[in-house]
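Fold it.
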Amino acid sequence: MNQSLAHIALVVRDYDEAIDFYVDTLGFTLVEDTYQPEQDKRWVVVKPVGDGSTSLLLARASTTHQQDYIGDQAGGRVFLFLRTDDFWRDYNRYVGRGVEFVREPKDAPYGIVAVFRDLYGNLWDLVQFADTRG
């Protein structure tokens, strides 16, 4: 058996502001942005640069119930873990681009990590693992 996560849906307020943050601020690649007229929505997929295969599906909230979860998809816990091969390169680049870090970098037994907020408030770990755990 061979399985992997293809996409993780991230509920967003607006497609274009989300693309701007993930592509222009974090440096992700825009994989697809296709209008789906039958549902009057867009299929917007972004992914970090590198060998990983998991991508984010930027899913615009279409109901008030979904809107309630924008920025709080994990109930205030770190939701996504962005693995990097050079923590300080990416940390310094993100700080320079105005990304808000809510926990400063620290050395942990598993590597170097800091926590940042995305444009909606979801918490992310920026992490460089010391081993192959990630």
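The mean pLDDT is 95.
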